[in-house]
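Extended Data, panel c. Modelled sequence:
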Amino acid sequence: MLKKADWVSPLLLVFTCLFPTASLLEATTFSGSKFGWQIHLPNEWKIEVLQDTGGSVSGAPAKAWMIKKDPMTYVIYQIEDSDIRNSMRLDEFKNKSFELISASMQHTARQVSASPFSNIDQIVVGNQVFDTLVWILEAPGRPDLKSMTLVAPMADKAVTINVSCTGADCDTVFRAIDNSHFSNPDGKGVVIPAPPPLPPTALRSTRDPVWDFTIPLGWQRVAVSSPEDKLAIEKGEGNSLSYSLMADEKHELALMTINDLKGEIFKETMTQFQQIAHENGLLFGSEEEVIMLGKAPFQTLSLSLVDPNTQEPVMVVAHLISMLNDKLAMIMITCMDELSCVEVQEAVEDSSFR
């Protein structure tokens, strides 16, 4: 029977080949720089500072720390100077990260004749949404080897958390991650401006359209509520944007023109806002237009509730709809202050579909 150490070399190599080990500090609590991630683990865990060699997944400079119990049980927390708020760059970074660990886990599975299983999901760690890949290797006569890779954009940085564990240690480390938090999620300090969006390309009818959208600084991703929801972000109290893509499963959309859809979707929203304005003594305003996001035309309805005394907006809501590749694309925006409205409006206008 292979010993526990037989799992080690292929898996640990993928996380440590780029970062030589520095000094060890025994501690129960790790507090990371920049975003202040805090995680509590038992006393036998130790912290290793992993030095930057410029060989990170994104190719950008990186800082990393390993919180380790033994060669098979550890958490690696890494911050890379790679702006992945842009949806295309996020997908590219996430895929590279997931491909790297997947290749290692598949190699390990072959070496020890284990059965591999994997799953991609989203989880929330300290109010931050992470895209997550979990691998489990099952082999007779020994505890399962589990690996979890978490990826998220935070402020203007790429953040990853990599976990390896076996047996009961997995309960300890997963519970610690669930209870961890970020004390400085905005990464206060000097930040790098978001990169410009990539030029739009022609939409293809053979696949879902991709929205090339860069999340504004100060906004953060939140978990989506359904498979149709592709993106949800928010800022503070009441400021939000959501993007959904709905398939025409009952062949109802194919029978409707875009003006029919406008009537169905915009009319109800407009009626609700008019009622709210009447009940609260507010002024109601509306505006319709067509805007181009890349080569995709979006019908847009903007609604506003205005304080009659100050003439300042109390709430602004915008709905953008378009039929793309036989699917209904919907972008819904709510903002409660002028700065947030400008931030999200500029981000949407600078985006494109491909």
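Confidence is low (pLDDT under 50) at residues 1-27, 190-206. This feature is highlighted in the accompanying rendering.
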